[in-house]
């Protein structure tokens, strides 16, 4: 620990010396710092890409306006830090005050926001000390949520040039990692459950094999009054209880089903169309419930929304069933819906 602390102090000192060298070069040559750090390569963005936290921290504190510089992809140092998972560099954004709100609105050439870059899986993957894919997936999700909290609500569903929202991009980019994480958890749970089962078997049999034996006349353990016997009984009980609970926990992991596949919600690529089933009712995107009892089983519901420049629109649903045809017109106000957005909702029994 002492070696690591000394190494960090040395790196911080070297970073400070480098910033001072840059300041002296600026004073001697009367150059602007923006021109100086671009030679021979763009020093600012190279440092962000390689994770040189100490250097960037000193540089940003000395020249705060450098955080607004963009590279050829229109990305700031914080965009690059997120893309390459340099958390310590990204945390510098909290030291610049109001500017972080402005930086959060920046988009690169592919219209990716900071949240889109957080949704991308690094290529090549970062070197991680985490023991399994499940923990790596958890770290990726925490990173995404950290950036999402900083973003304004109106920017969290912004689509990039490929028409993807950040969460859609996160799902696509981390599909393989999610699969590997599930396999890792199941394999780990299987191994641990085998060990827990063996322990439970041993301690269960030990409960009926009392040390010292029983009294032939009374059937009471001979050493029942001894302290060592009490320690054995308590330890055996704790071991049996713990192993039994562990078996149940690992069994629940092995038999668990992904919530995304069993929550009753089917999404059609956006938050503007979905269905939710709950017993004999179906619920649409506005929380309205429709009864499907008494033979009124809606087969298909289709609709479209046309906005005439205001935020008021109209839904028109044609519901076909065996007994009737109903046309429902309802005025919707204060709903943020894209023009001529097609909504398809399938309602089943």
UniProtKB/TrEMBL annotation:
Residues 273-287 have a biased composition (Basic and acidic residues). SUPFAM superfamilies: Ankyrin repeat (SSF48403). The chain crosses the membrane at residues 192-210, 230-254. Gene3D superfamilies: Ankyrin repeat-containing domain (1.25.40.20). The keyword Membrane applies. Residues 262-299 are annotated as: Disordered. Residues 183-256 form the PGG domain. InterPro entries: Ankyrin_rpt-contain_sf, PGG_dom. GO terms for cellular component: membrane. Residues 288-299 have a biased composition (Basic residues). Pfam families: PGG. It comes from the Eukaryota. Keywords: Membrane, Transmembrane, Transmembrane helix. The keyword Transmembrane applies. This is PGG domain-containing protein.
